[in-house]
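FW: tagging you since you asked about this chain on Friday. Here's the raw sequence from the shared folder, copied in full. Didn't touch anything.
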Amino acid sequence: MNGYLILIHVGFFVAALVFSLTINGLLLKFSKTLGIRNNPETIIRWSSTSKPALGGISFYIIFLFSLIGLSFLKTEPTGFFNLQTMGLLAAASLGFLIGLYDDAYNTHPWLKFAGQVMCALLLIFSGTYIQFFGPEWLNYLLTIFWVVGIMNSINMLDNMDGITSIVSAGILLAVLGIIALTGDFSNPVITILIGGLASLIGFLYYNWNPSKMYMGDTGSQFLGIFLAGLGIIYFWNGTGFEAEPNRLVKVISVAMAFSLPLIDTTTVFYKRISKGGSPFVGGKDHTTHHLSYLGMNDRKVAIFFLIFSLISAGFTIWITSLSGNWKPLYSYLFIAYLSALFLFLFVVALKPAPDDTKN
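HL: got it, structure written out here
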């Protein structure tokens, strides 16, 4: 039975990948000036060339395509389309619309922030929220902080060709690996994850350096809320773990799965605030940029993030498999890896840019 389900999933992945390549190609062909980003008055990007920011449209279309596909697959358990699923769909749709509006009109940051908070509230009201503290109101606050933080983190990481796609794919692979550990190949979330991976790979074909298109806020805001929701379900709340994880294991799994965006955002916030600037004003002081200042070209930076995204995803899956027999040694091992990765990127980012570029 599992072999049959795996074959179905492989077929769906191929179909979604072909669809992603096709729709991104069509969007690129007919875009011309539609969705062009890099207006120097409104945004700072690593590349100086204006390119259409339409990749996020394909993410959302394939997300809906995946949900519709569940109606035709025999893998859907009764009750999947419940309040929580509808809440995630509503939040993801709102995130998509927030990004689409921002790409078109460059919305005020506070309006964007309000939309992100609304995404978090949609998750909370539908029953998807972090269950970490005793008092529920603390869990709600942590959920809002988490959702807004990840939506902005994924958005900020979209500063160089291929980076956000690679990091997002790594997180999806971690969740897919966790589900695979359980042997539950009939889990409908697999279809959504496969569709997400296919859309990212299809987009990456056009976003790999030298890129032909960007995902824009349409893509980063959709990915941000989608990944934040998955993070709540599979890492913060421990779904898929062999046993109920303690708080330390939860924190380690969250930090491991989202290590690269969290490190980049923390580093950038520290640098900008320490210089008396706003952490929300864009610039060329991200970890990706400083790796480039070390002498890496854009492709090597993307490969660097690809390697550590895969390592972090592998460690995240390993953490899940060890949860039933957790030992203090495991905490030391994973914390050491996270600390080493953070210190390396943090130290690299503290070095001044060759042209003393400020964010």
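FW: The chain has 13 helices and no strands.
HL: agreed, and Residues 2-350 form one domain.
FW: great, closing this out.
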